[in-house]
Amino acid sequence: KNKIYQKFRLPTTSRKSTTIAQIPSNTMSKIAILDPGAQYGKLIDKTVRKLGVESQIVDLAASSEELADYAAYIVAGGGSSVHDADAPKYNAEIFSSGKPILGICYGLQLIVKELGGKVEKLDTREDGPIEISVEKSDSLLFEGTPAKQIVLMTHGDTVTELPQGFELEATSGGLTAAIANESKKMYGVQFHPETDLTVHGSQFISNFLFKIAGLEANYTLDDRHQTAIQEIRDTVGDRDVLLFVSGGVDSTITALLMAEAKLSGAVHAVHVDHGMMRHNESEVVEVALKAAGIDLDLVRDPDFFMNASTDIRGTKSKTLKETTDPEEKRAIIGDAFIQLRNREIERLGLDADTTVLAMGTLRPDLIESASELASGNAKVIKTHHNDTPLVRELRKRGQVIEPLKELHKDEVRELGHKLGAPDELVWRHPFPGPGLGIRLLCAKEPYMNDDFADVTAQLAKHATDSIKTTLLPVRTVGVQGDDRTLSYLAALSGDEDWPTLQKIAREIPKSVHGVNRIVYVFGDTVAEKSLDKITETYPSQDAFDQLRIADDKAMKVLQKHGLNKALAQMPIVSFPVNFGYEGKRSIGIRTMITNDFMTGDIALPGRDLPIDVIHEMVTEILKDSSIARVVYDLTSKPPGTTEWE
Fold first, then answer.
1. Are 298 and 247 in contact (CB under 8 A)?
2. Which terminal CB of the chain, N or C, has fewer other CB atoms within 10 Å?
3. Burial grade of 620 (CB within 10 A; 0-12, 13-18, 19 or more)
4. Which residues contact 569 (CB under 8 A, 6 or more apart)?
5. Mind telling me the catalytic residues?
6. Helix (H, G, I), strand (E, B) or coil at 405
7. pLDDT for residue 13 is more than 50
8. What is the band of 484 on the pLDDT scale with cuts at 50, 70, 90?
């Protein structure tokens, strides 16, 4: 095995003051964010604090005594239905407390149910950017926003009857979008104002805080830089640290913070090439980190990961190279990193019982993994490699330091600029720890459940004379109604009319509930309404090499035209649909525009990216004769996650 070890060196920095500003707290000027399992709860917290109001995320069932010091409540969204037998428990006294309340998504529905209205599951659901119409021109909540505007919806249940004393404030296609009882200062919105996809979202939250709840903007955020340094010193103490550095902005900023903390113990940085990296990724990482003043151990061991397995719900899994299930792949790769940690600790002569593992974990990672660090009620969307059961066990033992865990990507980039990290590192597109392992969709056989024919027929209703629909026999992961979905991939083909394609793609998940992702197929129109053949695919060197080359070609085209910063991320995905070409796979281009990485929209060709650039990517990728077709992902987040697995 080719392993390269280099002596670790951290950049020399002057030690800054450890004093952290103490924020005077007016106990009645802070709000409680009541959490029923919100995917976006931390985004509410982030928005409120940016507006200058102190906030804390509190369990939905918190007692009235625990809530006594809060001036107002925001009841966040969640993945349950208010009618579920196991719906999150809540404190009904909040609705008679007299304090201002804003219910978001699930929070709206809980208000309606508790106060005598009606919530029902209809045939139509809403996921993604939706236009709403404001019905009440003098609404305090909608003050300063237009009569028609785009918001993020993600719900299956709908309010069909308002409680007594409430008025309808906004609608979306005839469905309830917002309600209010002004005398009780109680408001509810079906959409998510805390996300980027709600264009005037910050204004809604500002209106609630200041115009409705009457709070003052007297809260100043702790300096996140000094807070992170202090957390590192308090958590690590005099122990040694092992830090996995991927080369992305998160782990790089973590490395720089570890250096600045001037710990008394040793800090060992390791970059792992697990065989699922992008083309020349490890070499690029090494050069980039050296430019930032960080040397590291470079460990190349693809065989270790390909032959790794783990315990999943009490059963030993297959090895990675034999596995097709996306969650099992994530779990195996994540736990392989921990197994590698143990091996590296032994090699370096460290104490396994005291050495601290440092990671660049962000808030979205914890939320999507349903970590208790982020939310006590959230549903698992996908298991991140830095939040597997083995990682959680290390956390319980006090052997993990994650100084960025309260931050989102845009905040980390701000911190990176403050620390003086090179621009090319700060603005690198995120690359997941499992690497291409989760960008290679694997399958032993076509994914065709009993509903395949019904979903095909539902999908066909969205076809036009010039744009055809095709159901594909693979599944991808999505996030709908704050919960995970594993659903079919749908394809559109025909005229390259991008605004129309996007419109159709947004309409499909509303009525075709078996689909959570829609792509456009370049080239000839696909005549069939469904396909039933795939190329059997497992994690293998050949499959990764094919994807690695396609990814490199697409990224080089993007860089050639200077469009890196036009996108937050551009995963290139391999999926096993062969479109009638036996033995071939297809490639997906997934563009993402986002700041918070919890929600996002596609880069629409002709609007956000030049169409010629997209065509150049397709042409370059198809020079590989083993690739059947190239597709372009048309799905916002939600209903589709950024990654397909």
1. no
2. N
3. middle
4. 429, 430, 590, 591, 592, 594, 597, 642
5. 105, 192, 194
6. coil
7. no
8. confident
Quick one: pLDDT at residue 64?
94
Determine how many CB atoms are found less than 10 A away from the CB of residue 234: 10
Nearest C-alpha neighbor of 272 from the set 542, 7, 549, 4: 4
Q: Read off the pLDDT of residues 511-543 as tens digits, 9 standing for 90 and up.
A: 999 999 999 999 999 999 999 999 999 999 999
Q: Which residue type sits at 178?
A: A
Residue 286: which pLDDT band, with cuts at 50, 70 and 90?
Answer: confident
pLDDT, residue 387, reads 61
Tell how far CA 272 is from the center of its chain: 23
Q: Which residue blocks in 188-261 are alpha helix, DSSP H?
A: 201-206, 224-236, 249-260
Nearest-angstrom CA–CA distance, 195 and 159: 21
For residue 499, give every residue at least 6 positions away whose Cβ sits within 8 Å of its Cβ, in sequence order, or none: 604
Question: For residue 452, which amino acid is it?
Answer: F
- Pull the structure tokens for residue 159: 């309010």
Q: What is the mean pLDDT of residues 396-414?
A: 85
Q: What pLDDT is stored for residue 363 in this prediction? A: 54
Confidence of residue 384 (pLDDT cuts 50, 70, 90): very low
Q: What is the CA 449 to chain-centroid distance, rounded?
A: 27
Nearest by Cα to 638 from 435, 381, 319, 448 = 381
Name the E strands within 135-289.
148-161, 167-172, 175-181, 186-189, 241-244, 267-273
> What is the distance between the alpha carbons of residues 601 and 135, in angstroms, rounded to a whole number?
27
In this structure, what is the dihedral angle of CA atoms 235, 237, 239, 243, given to the nearest 10 degrees?
Answer: 50
Distances from the Cα of 369 to the Cα of 28, 69, 168, 566, angstroms: 33, 31, 36, 28
In Å, the largest CA–CA distance within the chain is 72
Question: What average pLDDT does this structure show over 233-250?
Answer: 90
- Residue 70's pLDDT is what? 95
Residue 74 region by backbone torsions, left for phi larger than 0, else alpha for psi between -120 and 50, else beta: beta
What whole-number distance in Å separates Cα of residue 350 and Cα of residue 220?
41
CA 541 – CA 154 distance, rounded (Å): 38
Percentage helix, strand, coil for the chain under 3-state DSSP, each rounded to 5: 30, 25, 45
Q: Which residue has the tokens 């479109």?
A: 579
Residues 6 or more apart whose Cβ sits within 8 Å of residue 400: 356, 357, 358, 359, 391, 394
Closest CA relative to residue 604, chosen from 500, 467, 530: 500
Taking only the tens place, the pLDDT of each residue in 543-582 is: 999 999 999 999 999 999 999 989 999 999 999 999 999 9
Q: What percent of the chain has pLDDT over 70?
A: 90
Closest-CA residue to 546 (of 518, 576, 570): 576
As separate numbers, helices (DSSP H) first and strands (DSSP E) second, the chain gives 16, 22
| Bridging pattern class, strands 167-172 and 175-181 | antiparallel
pTM assigned to the model: 0.76
| Per-residue pLDDT at 643 | 93
Confidence of residue 410 (pLDDT cuts 50, 70, 90): confident
